[in-house]
Design brief:
Helix content: 55-70%
Number of helices: 6
Number of domains: 1
Strand content: under 5%
Number of strands: 0
Mean pLDDT: 89
Radius of gyration: 21 Å
Shape: globular
């Protein structure tokens, strides 16, 4: 098992902080904004007040995910690639904002869908069937993570399709969970030492006393 470098720890920890901090600051700059009912994308929509704040947040958080994918050397390559692809799709969301009032942008919808899918599914490509890997990279933990993230994605989708009153809340809970799992994986990799570190040192021969 290969250890996650320090810069991977920084990127994985920065992602949830930047995401939650970014949408909090951006929401505070809007004259009228309901964080429960309004989506995060509305904060970067054309016509939003200081939309650059949320746009920059999308870009920085996506970059953090890409760096984390590069740093997760203990995870399988397919999972790391899916995480990076989801991150890049999220950055493309910033380049394709919604129109004023949250109306129709097909590229925005497409990139957002790819991003959500990647950030939900990447644990499936990352786990290893090896008892020596950290617990977060084993199939049971990965399957549990996917189940939770997928359930949150379904909640968000239902709220979005039915124009429910909690679409913003659902998106924020889902986004926070998606940002928290890479951090959990990185931390588990850092605290799990390779097995060879636990090998017992040979006991030197003890001198025998003369009879």
């Amino acid at each position: 098992m290969r250890e996650v470098p320090w810069w991977g720890v920084v990127s994985s920890a920065a992602a949830p902080v930047l995401l939650i901090g970014g949408w909090t600051v951006a929401a505070g700059l809007q004259p009228r904004f309901d964080p429960v009912a309004d989506t995060v994308s509305a904060l970067a929509a054309i016509g939003a007040t200081d939309r650059w704040v949320m746009t920059l947040t999308f870009l920085l958080v996506g970059l953090c995910y890409v760096v984390t994918a590069l740093a997760l050397r203990s995870a399988r390559i397919p999972g790391r690639l899916i995480l990076a692809a989801g991150a890049i799709a999220g950055m493309m969301v910033a380049a394709n904002p919604e129109h004023a009032g949250g109306f129709g942008s097909v590229p925005h919808f497409v990139w957002a869908s790819i991003g959500f899918a990647g950030l939900t599914a990447w644990p499936a490509g990352s786990w290893r069937r090896d008892p020596s890997v950290p617990w977060t990279l084993r199939p049971p933990a990965g399957a549990a993570a996917i189940a939770v993230l997928f359930a949150l994605l379904i909640w968000f989708g239902v709220e979005l399709i039915t124009a429910g009153g909690q679409v913003g809340l659902a998106e924020r809970v889902m986004g926070a969970a998606q940002a928290a799992w890479p951090l959990a994986v990185v931390l588990s990799c850092r605290v799990s030492l390779p097995r060879e570190n636990y090998r017992a040192e040979p006991i030197p021969d003890q001198p025998t006393s003369a009879a």
